[in-house]
């Protein structure tokens, strides 16, 4: 049984460290695979998502309108305050997860941490921030792709629609177009996405 609180803390620790290191130029960088968000806006969403869930504002989660509220409400919030909000929700989110809460908020943090790494050409995040997620979604991927194999990190990125159909064809050359279109939980995409740096 995965301890999603441990994964959430690991993601948060890496997120705060990365967010604290970004320059103003980097914060203004558009992050691929997001709704054309800048890195600052990704941090705003990652601050707002847990706060919204803990406040009971999640009826329309994870719709575009729900995520956009996080970004809009924090448009003028300094990065230090965004990261403080990111950190402040860790204990209550972990308590919620321990009580049987769904781990979607953990997966969201994991995916966007990887988005930021790829946007800045960094190596992929530490395995403890994403390996438990890909293990959790393997049954669905197996139903779609059968016994097709690929590197675990690429399965993680593909599942969350972070790889284009062309990139997925390279990963799964034996899969049909219909199978590949079903891989991404947010639907197929046609724009190639960056890969993490080697190392």
From TrEMBL:
Residues 8-130 form the Mycothiol-dependent maleylpyruvate isomerase metal-binding domain. One of its GO terms (molecular function) is metal ion binding. InterPro entries: DinB/YfiT-like, MDMPI_metal-binding. It comes from the Bacteria. Gene3D superfamilies: dinb family like domain. This is Mycothiol-dependent maleylpyruvate isomerase metal-binding domain-containing protein.
